[in-house]
Write a structure and sequence with these properties.
The structure is a homodimer.
Chain A (H helix, E strand, L loop, with lengths): L6 H10 L5 H13 L6 H14 L3 E5 L5 H7 L7 E6 L2 H14 L5 E5 L2 H5 L5 E6 L6 H8 L3 E10 L13 H16 L3 E6 L5 E6 L2
Parallel strand pairs in A: 1-2, 1-4, 2-3, 4-5
Antiparallel strand pairs in A: 5-7, 6-7
Chain lengths: 209, 209
């Protein structure tokens, strides 16, 4: 098994910046207990930082689960900005809505139940698009969503290194689409793209015009 | 020896985004031939992206070498923005000046020979401070430079994981100062800080006010 980042280094980073926030910790515990996939905490920190830097008006997230990544992003939003969460499972979104309400962030969020790709296309001038849905849908997400991005938008995708499987030939159902997605964005003339090996790999593409 | 990022993953990223730019390739060759330390190419891409996102007016670099990192940053600067290169060795800066002139970027750059810490303090309202000088000086760089940052500034430092030595007890001349630097920024109330395990580790700290 490939460790994208050396485990000692990963531990160093976790120890250097211990998390004390009860809401984040509770969500991490919930994910562990349910065996539900959420972003790595270091990816959460990174998303928070990218959001602070970008200062978006509108964020759309494709595949929100129960809201862990959305919380990291929403905490970096300025007044008047909002994030759209999309998720198939109503009960996940209900949990997210509860967390956002407790946090005082409910008015910065829209909670949309259903097909993330269909819902996402209802929005235009998206400043940050965060993709974290089923991996085999990543290339389809580009086709659907690129026309809906604002100038100088930031496209971010989690799992771009897919547990290291991008360097293997296994698991083709998800692996080939992730590799194709990485290739499309890396070669796209309208974006500057880089993949950062944090957590499970984060692709970041900045729209150049 | 610790590989911060798995070597197969590092190769995947290099292959996915092959560099064809003759100036960057020549500088990488020069560094190799001279055994001169420059940032990892993936760190270069990351700096470029952070600069696109931040849209700074003024960038100050502490420790410019012969200008490889500065070139990645300068190519992302908007009209009217500038980068200050600082470096002890006059011949390194002369080389950088030549590259920037060929590139048509000379008017966006200032080339300052001397002590980086002293020179850096001549500037105020710095939007991006990039630290890549002698590692034992990293904590001193904070003391000297934090008062010179603009609101919402971005502080970036290379080698924050110091070839993985931050998890070892060796090499205390440089290692302890790097660890101390990471701790100071991680605990600083005025910054949101994260360390991204790209290349040799990049610390990014966003000033919250």
């Amino acid at each position: 098994m490939i460790h994208i980042t050396d485990p000692l280094i990963a531990t160093y980073l976790m120890t250097l910046q211990p998390e004390e926030d009860p809401r984040l910790l509770a969500m991490e515990e919930k994910a562990k207990a349910m065996n539900f996939p959420i972003i790595d905490r270091q990816v959460g920190r990174f998303l928070h930082l990218l959001t602070l830097l970008k200062r978006p008006k509108l964020v759309v997230e494709l595949g929100s689960g129960f809201g862990y990544s959305a919380l990291w992003i929403a905490r970096a939003l300025e007044d008047g900005a909002r994030i759209v969460l999309t998720e198939y499972a109503e009960k996940n979104l209900a949990y997210a809505r509860g967390i956002f309400t407790e946090e005082g962030l409910a008015e910065k969020a829209e909670f949309r139940t259903g097909n993330a790709l269909e819902l996402g296309q209802e929005y235009d001038d998206i400043d940050i698009l965060f993709i974290d849905m089923d991996k085999y849908l990543y290339p389809a997400a580009l086709e659907a969503m690129l026309p809906h991005l604002a100038p100088k938008a930031l496209l971010i995708a989690d799992n771009a290194l897919w547990r290291g499987r991008v360097v293997e030939t296994l698991d083709t159902k998800n692996n080939e689409p992730v590799k194709k997605f990485n290739e499309i964005m890396s070669r796209h003339d309208s974006f500057f793209t880089t993949i950062v090996p944090v957590g499970d790999g984060v692709l970041i593409a900045y729209r150049l015009s």
